[in-house]
Task: inverse folding
């Protein structure tokens, strides 16, 4: 009898990450709700910008909304302001917040594990597929929102210090603003991955990025110290404004990007750590346990607290509101001088420069009865400038300022009527919007006191 020795069975080969990534990407893009979302991101911003730009009433309460008749780039920034509050948190919820929970609802973990044979590769494929879809959606929003340039035109944009930004520079700044807003979007996506892993089939896993985004955005309108405000990823949806001041407020912007990327890395790392340690043999163990919630929430709270501490040590200004009389006076002086030059060109008067005006501003809060710091609508400022070509004659204009806790302010002209007391000015070509009547400004919350 001849003995037969069989060769040992070959070890099953693991599926490469790139094949798993393609499979997860196809699964995501096959969902009807994501297809509708992609279509909406391509169409809705363009339609809104075009329709609003044709209206006689503009969204003046939104940053750059009052300039939508003047340039198409203003519409893109209006969409960005709205998207940072509502759309981007919703996108991360529908994509990252459901990418793992969907397997729990469908009960398909066993089939996926048998096919891929590696929880690490499953996580990598799902995370990369989610990131790809989010990038495509944000890019669609940015491109679609620029449709205003087709209707209004590729014209100069007026910045937050009144300076005129050339069309080419405006296009670059708008692009950078959308890229900067991608950092806090990544932070919300990391929170979505963490919620999808820890909460399993619970609906809260899907809602977590949207709820977290709305909560952190709500914190930005509260009178909180600057350190608390900047330590939240949602500040990244505000900090891009610094690109449109002169000089650019890059300090808060860089801090916001670093904080957002730190949150994204920690949240994604926690999601990975919990996922690869999950017991997939127990069909009821979908992550909704006290231990995973503690492991998921506590590290982010520690990151938040440490960030606040570091900011308070490195920037003493971050311990307070970051808003004071000196900052407002400097910003208002610069904005008024630049806009006065713009009004002079609009009225076809002899050219004048900011240096010739020698403008200055004095502000007080609540008529001097309260401290000249912090947000509020009780700020009143008087701007003084030297009238060009009239010897030593001096002009004065009054503004009421509504200052928000995030550093933005709206200056509302209160006379004289020939300068800033009416929303229209009479030009040789007809009535036109008065740039000095109302305008937006922004102060650097992390800058030293004025």
Result:
């Amino acid at each position: 009898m001849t003995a037969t020795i069989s060769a040992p069975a070959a070890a099953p080969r693991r599926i490469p990450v790139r094949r798993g990534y393609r499979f997860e990407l196809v699964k995501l893009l096959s969902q009807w709700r994501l297809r509708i979302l992609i279509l909406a991101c391509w169409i809705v911003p363009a339609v809104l910008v075009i329709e609003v730009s044709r209206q006689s009433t503009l969204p003046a309460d939104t940053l750059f909304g009052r300039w939508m008749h003047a340039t198409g780039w203003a519409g893109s920034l209006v969409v960005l302001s709205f998207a940072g509050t509502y759309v981007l948190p919703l996108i991360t919820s529908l994509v990252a917040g459901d990418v793992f929970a969907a397997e729990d609802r469908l009960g398909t973990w066993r089939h996926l594990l048998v096919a891929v044979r590696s929880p690490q590769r499953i996580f990598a494929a799902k995370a990369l597929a989610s990131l790809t879809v989010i990038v495509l959606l944000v890019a669609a929003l940015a491109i679609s929102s620029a449709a205003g340039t087709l209707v209004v035109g590729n014209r100069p944009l007026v910045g937050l210090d009144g300076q005129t930004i050339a069309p080419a520079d405006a296009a670059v700044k708008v692009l950078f603003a959308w890229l900067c807003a991608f950092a806090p979007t990544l932070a919300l996506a990391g929170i979505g991955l963490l919620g999808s892993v820890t909460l399993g089939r619970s609906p809260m896993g899907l809602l977590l990025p949207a709820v977290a985004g709305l909560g952190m955005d709500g914190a930005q309108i509260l009178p909180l110290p600057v350190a608390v405000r900047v330590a939240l990823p949602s500040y990244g949806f505000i900090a891009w404004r610094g690109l449109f001041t002169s000089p650019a407020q890059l300090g808060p912007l860089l801090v916001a990007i670093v904080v957002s990327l730190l949150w994204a890395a920690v949240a994604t790392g926690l999601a990975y750590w919990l996922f690869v340690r999950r017991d997939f043999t127990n069909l009821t163990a979908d992550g909704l346990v006290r231990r995973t919630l503690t492991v998921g929430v506590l590290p982010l709270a520690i990151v938040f607290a440490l960030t606040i501490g570091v900011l308070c040590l490195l920037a003493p200004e971050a311990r307070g509101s970051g808003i004071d009389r000196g900052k407002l006076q400097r910003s208002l002086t610069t904005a008024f001088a630049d806009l006065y030059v713009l009004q002079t060109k609009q009225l076809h008067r002899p050219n004048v420069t900011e240096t010739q005006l020698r403008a200055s501003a004095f502000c007080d809060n609540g008529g001097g009865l309260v401290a000249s710091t912090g947000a509020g609508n009780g700020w009143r400022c008087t701007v003084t400038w030297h009238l060009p070509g009239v010897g030593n004659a001096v002009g004065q204009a009054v503004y009421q300022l509504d200052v928000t806790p995030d550093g933005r302010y709206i200056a509302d002209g209160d006379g004289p009527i020939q300068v800033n007391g009416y929303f229209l000015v009479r030009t040789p070509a007809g009535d036109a919007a008065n740039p000095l009547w109302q305008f937006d400004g922004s102060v650097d919350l992390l800058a030293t006191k004025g």
Summary: Confidence is low (pLDDT under 50) at residues 1-11.
